[in-house]
Amino acid sequence: MFNPNRVLRGAAMIASLALTAGCGLLSDGDTDGEGPIVVGTTSAPSTLDPAGAYDGSWELYRNVFQTLLAYPDGATTPQPDAAERCAFTDTASRVYRCVLRPGLKFADGDRLDAAAVRHSVDRIRAIDAPGGPAGLLGSLDRVETSGDREVVFHLNQPDATFPFVLATPALSIVDPKDYPAHSLREGDEAHGSGPYELRSYTEGREAVLTGNRNYKGFAERQNDRVTIRYFATSASMVEALRDKRIDVTYRGLGADDIVALQRHGTEDLQLVDGTGTDISYLVFNPKDRWAGRAAVRKAVAQLVDRGAIAHKVYEDTVDPLYSMVPKGLTGHATGFFDDYGDPSVPKARKFLTDAGITERVPLTLWYTTDRYGSETARMFKELKRQLEDSGLFTITLRSRPWKTYVVGYQKGEYPVFGRGWFPDFPDADNFIAPFVGEHNALGTPYPAKEITGRLLPRSRAESDRAETVKDVEAAQQIMVDDARLLPLWQGRQFVAASDDISGGEQALDPSTIMMMWTLHRKTSW
Question: What are the start-end ranges of the E strands in 233-341?
Answer without folding.
Answer: 248-249, 269-284, 318-320
